[in-house]
Description:
Elements: E1 3-8, E2 16-21, E3 30-31, E4 35-38, E5 44-48, E6 53-60, E7 66-69, E8 73-75, E9 80-87, E10 90-95, E11 105-109, E12 117-123, E13 126-133, E14 138-141, E15 147-152, E16 172-174, E17 179-185, E18 189-195, E19 203-204
Parallel strand pairs: 1-17, 5-19, 9-11
Antiparallel strand pairs: 1-5, 2-4, 2-15, 3-13, 6-7, 6-8, 6-12, 9-10, 11-14, 12-13, 15-16, 17-18
Amino acid sequence: MSYIYVINESDDPQTSIALYRKVDDVMSISVNAWMTAYIPIGSKARFNIGSTYGIFISYTSAGGNIMYESAILPITDGEGSFRVTKSGSEINLIAVDSPEIANEVIVEVDKKVGRLIYINVIRNNQIYYSLPTSPGYSQEFIVQNDLFISKVRPEVVQGSVLVAREILIPPSVIQAGETAVLTGDVNTGYDFTIRKEAYSDFIYLP
Length: 206
């Protein structure tokens, strides 16, 4: 398994952190808090950040309530080709053959679907990010393993969409096997230092 480690060496007794996907390659992305945790002062935590990916679609009502979610289809070896179709009143996500693709995911939404669809990518069974897509359009993207880590407001929970006001310090990129150490105090501010080594004495957070 792939892990990262987080240590709270700051003076903040209410440290909430979030892990989320890098977003520099897709501007329309809706960023989700993929993992969140509360880490008390002096605590060390380990996170499983393995990279098993899947994809499903959803759409919402005018009020923002989820009306439909499809079954989850696997993304194998970071690539796949999918299509959103409509038959009668039923909307489906299906995998299609596309031998020319390599190291990317392509999702086409048929024009007759007739409504905005959210393409949701999951990582280790948690929502990683969502791409709103209109009928007649497609999304092409690369599934990345790199993550951002940041200190966030305590009300941020796993799966919620992150907005700028909830991210309290500039995010840092972290990868498997690295350790993020939160330092600082209420007067001088907080920051993560990313170390290239892992720690063996930790508490486990699923």
